[in-house]
Fold Guanylate kinase.
Amino acid sequence: MKIMEFPGNLYVVAAPSGAGKSSLVKALLELDARLMVSVSHTTRKPRGQEQDGREYWFIPEPAFRAMIAHGDFFEWAEVHGNLYGTSRAAIEARLKAGEDVVLEIDFQGALQIKQLFPMAVLIFILPPSWSELRQRLLRRGEDAGEVIEQRMVNARHEVAQARHFDYIVVNALFETALFDLKTIVHAQRLKYAAQRRSRPAVFDALQLS
Ligand SMILES: Nc1nc2c(ncn2[C@@H]2O[C@H](COP(=O)(O)OP(=O)(O)O)[C@@H](O)[C@H]2O)c(=O)[nH]1
Ligand SMILES: Nc1ncnc2c1ncn2[C@@H]1O[C@H](COP(=O)(O)OP(=O)(O)O)[C@@H](O)[C@H]1O
């Protein structure tokens, strides 16, 4: 089966660090039992509450490089000085089984995925302002001061890529942004259902070809 023919939908969510991507995707998953998030591999060290296999698969750089050499990744990128990648194993089987998958990855990975899988829906989350982005990074309290400053510098470059995405969601009020995300996921499901073999049961009931 070619990747274009996978019956599951693929959603890719990117954002500058601190914009609220992880919080929004977590809330979206709680509302939508058909969505699964893909667990990426990274060479970054785990933060306080993070667990191996839950937020990420935390692996040393030589192991990550070996996976690249074996062609194990759909995409990978260096972000804020660490390596991150989406393994084929993490998403291929699910998409083939008709499950919808969300990737929480950076813009470089998102653009690689769009090349491989043009039906992927690319969503970029923007913070309402630079000062609010800094506040959120500070409030989260997980990163050292110089790490936050590096992320603020990188954020300028990252948001410039938003124009290559299919949708932009501004995360000012959390509930509004969550509603926007839900709407995008729902609308894309309805759109793709009409284009694919995995069509809603009503198509058969109405004998639509
Ligand atoms: N290309 C790519 N980027 C990823 C992947 N997993 C995570 N990222 C991105 O790496 C960046 C840093 O993530 P993380 O260290 O968790 O920090 P956070 O964004 O501040 O929570 C974010 O932009 C993530 O979306 C992946 O598998 N591939
Ligand atoms: N709409 C919002 N208003 C205020 N704070 C928010 C909002 N969305 C997320 N946050 C907070 O901002 C911080 C960064 O969010 P997080 O989801 O970790 O971002 P990301 O995954 O994009 O790095 C967290 O402390 C989170 O609770």
Q: What stands out?
A: DSSP finds eight helices and nine strands in the chain.
